[in-house]
Amino acid sequence: MTTSPVIELDAVGMTYRSRKETNTVLDGCTLTVGRGEFVSIVGHSGGGKTTLLRIISGLIHPTEGSVRVNGQHVDQSLSDMSMVFQKPVLLPWRDNLQNVLLPMEFRGRVTDTMRAYAMELLEMTGLKDTARRHPYELSGGMQQRVAICRALVSHPDIMLMDEPFGALDAMTRDSMNLELQRIWSETGRSILFVTHSIPEAVFLSDRVLVIGDKPGRVVADITVDLPRPRTKAHRYTPEFYEYEQQISELIGAKESIA
User: Does the pLDDT at position 1 exceed 60?
Assistant: First the structure.
């Protein structure tokens, strides 16, 4: 894996101002994500993690600092980047294949080749037989897999994922962790992944960034030196537990972070 940076943030700050108050969400936030890396962000709710993803994606602009993606300053939403949200956000009147193809429809690029690729993605995630079914016919975990396929269909260099498995039950979440690890290893995408789950962050990541209390900034950058591919058994090793404890202590709230 090469480590040339695809995402670079330098002293990024974000302050919202209204007539009544000033709300600083991020202050002096600096980080990098290397090409092909899986990097997770953990921290308390309200620490600016989602705001950070929105800034990187170009949806909003920081009030301070600079953001570069693939060496270019970000001043608009980028075509080589996709985002997976906390909920699948699928259109219920469209079948699953049509939902996957939606980004390409917006770009006027739905071809037979693209339809075939969308089917390959559904097959890769175990959903080939559901292509003509609708989202309401699928479980929550299956819907989130459709959302991941939709994020991959445009061949993005970078995927931003904002707590995509937070609403799932524990067993489904574990399965999705294994599925995402496999997808990442097969596609080689760079992934920046926000989660409140420390075990999930350790399991999936090459590096874990700890965001401090509001206003958010990176207070620790921890390299996870565990073998890949990781299995459920890795969660019960002393090495895995040590990473969990280290991150819990940095966050300072062992009981409030699931």
Answer: no
**5-80+156-251: which CATH number, 3.40.50.300, 3.40.50.620, 3.20.20.70, 3.40.120.10?**
3.40.50.300
What confidence tens digit (pLDDT) does each residue in 207-221 have?
999 998 888 899 999
pLDDT-based confidence at residue 254 (cuts at 50, 70, 90) = very low
**HEC secondary structure over the chain:** CCCCEEEEEEEEEEEEECCCCEEEEEEEEEEEEECCCEEEEECCCCCCHHHHHHHHHCCCCCCEEEEEECCEECCCCCCCEEEECCCCCCCCCCCHHHHHHHHHHHCCCCCHHHHHHHHHHHHHCCCHHHCCCCHHHCCHHHHHHHHHHHHHCCCCCEEEEECCCCCCCHHHHHHHHHHHHHHHHHHCCEEEEECCCHHHHHHHCCEEEEECCCCECEEEEEECCCCCCCCHHHHHCHHHHHHHHHHHHHHCCCCCCC
